[in-house]
């Protein structure tokens, strides 16, 4: 089967054409396909639901510690010849046993019960972003709604002051913007830009860490700033900073893209919004369907820790695998009519939050944020229609629309 590797992995391709659903559909006829895209690291494409579950469940064979994104040849060269040594690892790049020890530091906060405490913050945030639209008009829903809601929620739990929210938003877009020129810093080499970016994050989060150590409160910021490991040792400064970074960065663009994906799906399928308005008991399944259908985390990389055989293929230690969650979520072996957006879909065993060892730590918070916005939408959106084309962020990792122009009328 001819494989267009660039279509699978090139950020520019995603910017131009969105996710390669048609190619994934063909690739799902086999468990693995070896891909050699020009200018990028070679990898095994894993596109089926069952194989992604299998590989995710074997962290001793397929690890995260060698990195979670596939690199361009140039990035791989810079990694092997670093001008700036990377001293910080976040939990997503850890493997057992360290991973479990560090994940425990915050996992208590992110349980369903822990997240219930945030109900008021999440509901208020969703309401205020919809209020800010005014009764009727035209707006870019990414700018006005979908990036503001998770920004407000995450900033609140991490102790970021409202006046710093926009700066944080710019920093995270630059970190995740891939090759998108609209999102990159200008006039610097990439290494200088990354170092400057890191220092800006450092300054912002370090001020909060110091404040919470001196003045503890009942929030995640304090929990991280004062965390100890199982052996009673305090979490190191770099690890604490890493936690801030991973919570914000893993939580913001993913939630934003899932919300934009929800608006897109409802614009394309107005009958599904009507269904939700008529039957609010569908809210829970609608939230899961939004995550399945939008699949903001397009893929995650794993690396083989040893020579092994998988489905008859000789795998070499160091071989890389792209687990395409967005493809698994459209696998017809698991989902009836997988390309249909169905707010009542049940069961819905999607892999939008990953699976097993690295299953999304923030999944309950993400669900609560999506639910709060869908509730506003179902209760208050009188009508909406596209006011132009949506365009995609040029990134193949965390994927979604960059702009979504919409005409709308809402009630008070
Ligand atoms: C709809 C929104 C979200 C989606 C689709 C999503 C998706 C994912 C996925 C697929 C993974 C697995 C990574 C892997 O396989 O290596 C993951 C991990 C993670 N997510 Fe999320 N996420 C979302 C929201 C959030 C939020 C709101 C937070 C935090 C507040 C968060 C924090 C994390 C963290 C810390 C990890 C790493 C967990 C670990 O390595 O043990 N995510 N997420």
What does this structure look like?
This protein is of the alpha+beta class and 412 residues long. It has a single domain (5-410), classed as Cytochrome p450 (Orthogonal Bundle), CATH 1.10.630. It has 18 helices and twelve strands. It has helices at 5-9, 11-17, 21-27, 49-56, 73-80, 98-107, 112-116, 119-131, 141-146, 148-158, 165-176, 190-214, 220-225, 237-268, 270-278, 283-294, 325-328, 363-380; strands at residues 32-35, 43-46, 62-63, 136-140, 299-304, 308-310, 313-315, 320-324, 381-386, 391-392, 401-403, 405-410. α8 (119-131) crosses α18 (363-380). The protein is globular. The chain starts with a helix and ends with a strand. The mean pLDDT is 93. Residues 64, 68, 91-92, 103, 246-247, 250-251, 254-255, 258, 291, 296-297, 300, 325, 352-354, 358, 360-362, 365-366 line the site of protoporphyrin IX containing FE.
List the helices and strands and how they pair.
Elements: H1 5-9, H2 11-17, H3 21-27, E1 32-35, E2 43-46, H4 49-56, E3 62-63, H5 73-80, H6 98-107, H7 112-116, H8 119-131, E4 136-140, H9 141-146, H10 148-158, H11 165-176, H12 190-214, H13 220-225, H14 237-268, H15 270-278, H16 283-294, E5 299-304, E6 308-310, E7 313-315, E8 320-324, H17 325-328, H18 363-380, E9 381-386, E10 391-392, E11 401-403, E12 405-410
Parallel strand pairs: 2-8
Antiparallel strand pairs: 1-2, 3-5, 4-12, 5-8, 6-7, 9-12, 10-11
Helix pairs in contact: 8-10, 8-18, 10-14, 11-12, 11-14, 12-14, 14-15, 14-16, 14-18, 16-18
Bound molecules: protoporphyrin IX containing FE (HEM).
